């Protein structure tokens, strides 16, 4: 068998690599998923779907009920006006990101992305035979329109924006997002906005770039918000031709998202939201304990404003992450997220308070 060279060239995720070598008693602060269980009312909706026999294909775009609820959610929470027909339900935000890149990128096209940034973006650009172009974030890990503008070429087809940000926990301001959206519109490329951490903002405010331009593909999921990473349920909102072209790819690679997960997501999005507020407050408490623990060790770290990651500067990130793993604490070196932040490590606080405190004790001894 021969393999496509542009696929062979893709590295296995640096995050997965960083788990290798962890001993049995290691505390895992490397994971990007909530440690909470999916709330009961959401589980019950899925069980009812199975018991009712709601187990066949749905419309390619997703059920009308769920898209109606998502249209309402986008209006209520994000101030965005998308009809149910402008929304597509996908298998996680991951599939939505793939569809967006696949729909706009041709061989040799350039995809701009913040560095450091989420590991999937560069790989997705490569799968589409495009070229990932990293845009260094500023010293607060914000993506500025000036930095993006410097890297726009006639081959630029997309810019991926991720606020709140993985791995840094930064949250872009409305003004910054507006400037990025205007760049996309002026230069005729897509702004792909990955908003999966929107509900976990502790300082500042989440805003959607789609408020400022119709050239935005808004991507989100129930994965992080409702502790549903294993349900594989995401969605995107886009206008006219953009949606149509992504639907063509979705139709043939996925057909539709899981019918059962769609019912669960309907309960999540249209049901009580206290569970989200509770998780957010717990994340905030953990963040505060983690950050003050790291600072008391002399680490250089600004308080992350969102998501559930701390991203301290530690010197040689690869070396520190390797020493921590030998001492029983799994983190991810900054080098997994690009080339700009090799002197950082990512520490997830989607772990219990007890684990965070034990890990801090171990880190103090190791470092
Ligand atoms: C920024 C970002 N986008 C997308 C995803 C993937 O989300 P999903 O599980 O819905 O595919 C993740 C998961 O870690 C993420 O951190």
UniProtKB/TrEMBL annotation:
**GO molecular-function annotation terms?**
transaminase activity
Q: Does the keyword Nucleus apply?
A: no
Aminotransferase class I/classII large domain span: 26-361
What organism does the UniProt record list as the source? Candidatus Methanocrinis alkalitolerans
Q: Which family does it belong to?
A: Belongs to the class-I pyridoxal-phosphate-dependent aminotransferase family.
The name this protein goes by in its record: Pyridoxal phosphate-dependent aminotransferase
Q: Does the keyword Transferase apply?
A: yes
Its quaternary structure? Homodimer.
Q: Which cofactor does it need?
A: pyridoxal 5'-phosphate
Q: Which UniProt keywords apply?
A: Aminotransferase, Pyridoxal phosphate, Transferase
Q: What is the lineage of its organism?
A: Archaea, Methanobacteriati, Methanobacteriota, Stenosarchaea group, Methanomicrobia
Q: Which is one Pfam family of this protein?
A: Aminotran_1_2
Q: Which InterPro entries match?
A: Aminotransferase_I/II_large, AspAT/PAT-like, PyrdxlP-dep_Trfase, PyrdxlP-dep_Trfase_major, PyrdxlP-dep_Trfase_small
